[in-house]
What does this fold into?
Amino acid sequence: MESIKGKTAIAGLGITPMGRIYGRDAASFAVEAVRFALEDSGLGKEQIDGLLINQATTPFGGLGGLALQEYLGLPNLRFVNSLTMGGATAASMVQIAALAVAHGMANYVVCVFADAPLREDRGGGQAYGAWSAGLRPYGLSGLHLAYGLFGINAPYAMAARRHMGLYGTTNEHLGAIAVAQRKWAALNPAAQEREPMTMEDYHRSRWVVEPLHLYDCCLVSNGGIAVIVTTAERARDLRQPPVYVLGMGQGHPGALTRPGWDADTVTGAGIAKETAFGTAGISVDDVDVCELYDCYTYTVLVTLEDYGFCEKGEGGPFVADGKLGPGGSLPTDTGGGMLSAYYMWGMTPISEAAIQARGQGGERQAPKNDIILVTGNGGILEHHCAIVLSPRPG
Amino acid sequence: MSDYAKPLPVPSPISLPFFEAVKRHELVVMRCRSCGTCRLIERETCPECWSNDYEWVRASGRGSVYSFVVMHQRLHPAFAGDIPYNVALIDLEEGPRLVSNIVGCPNEALKVSMAVEVVFDDVSDELTLPRFRPTFA
It folds into this structure.
């Protein structure tokens, strides 16, 4: 079969205002994101014939948010679905949209993420962490609650601690990622957190779940992002420079309970890389910019290892010199990522990758943008998606 | 102990033998009668060979710390007084990985891969929880 390399592209990007924006629901952010993406691309509403939805913590309608079609008033679509793979969903949506347009199932597929978990009376920790405290544990599946294991931070802290125990990774290493990304955020007018952060600030930030400090954890944001995926030919006729999809892959270790299983320190990125880099015809040395899913600093570290930017276990020393930050040799999460810019799950790295590929990064534009690696991560490092993007079709 | 305010697990049909065993201060795991793999998960089916045929067998109670965390967030009022408290994942000798707490060891001294053994904590009239303490050989 003919390769899909360079055959499809992201042709529109819509980003709503982000962060502590109250009084709006997720559907309203979703509609606005789609409107912005259409304006960005120059497409008309009637040209949209595909819709993929990544519903998050605040639903916008039944059947996984398929009601969004009605909110958008889009009749007679040819390709629709709601996808669920946590933080890997957004990248998966773009992959599936690319497959659909490449094979003629639709011409212009809009991929949407929106969420509005923040309220004026409720902080981010409460929005994401408190839910599990109200549960009555049932059987073995709920046993962790009896031991005081609540929220989503703790399992990622387990993963980070495992890595520390096996390889000597330290908070200083994780802090280098947080500090580098804050430097990028300072150059991004749309970022939520732009105040400079020193390593001392990092160490002083409160423990959330040891070994994770507050600054190891992503933000929580209200907002929405939409991207439009189409064929390379169609993208060339539109308003923005096409962002070509050179390769795509997935890797899923899953949450197995097999004795000895350790997806916390060896993620699905290795498998995803084989497929994505194979299609793109690149090696890790060709990557100019990384837009890595960064729900936690640790996620960035382990992802870099699994792509082979350094050896397994060497992620800490690898990032310690600040190479991920502005002016560094491996620009990573160049908008500030989810740690410092905004938390739109997998859409945060995709949106920033599109900006970088178009050369529209302004002060934060990476010097070289030929090959951009985008990743998504779902569950507790259980699901991984990779996309290789470029301003050129190959 | 009737004022126990932490989450009380409700035994399910599958897990009832586990909760009855810990009440007797015995740790048990599910062993597949088809392939012999041990598990401790809310599943009737062995994920290795897909057999539904299993038995509960007594575990040695020995294991090692896969990983651990120290909780600082006040996410449940009944745990507020325990902060900072540890939660650990224990790899039992027989294979299954179990969530628990480590007792008899300050949080600062916890280590990945440290050897531990089970102790039984009768937290209320209804509930006994297996916890783990460092093994001093």
About this structure: Chain B has a mean pLDDT of 95. The two ends of chain B are 34 Å apart (CA to CA). Chain B touches chain A through 48 residues (CB under 8 Å).
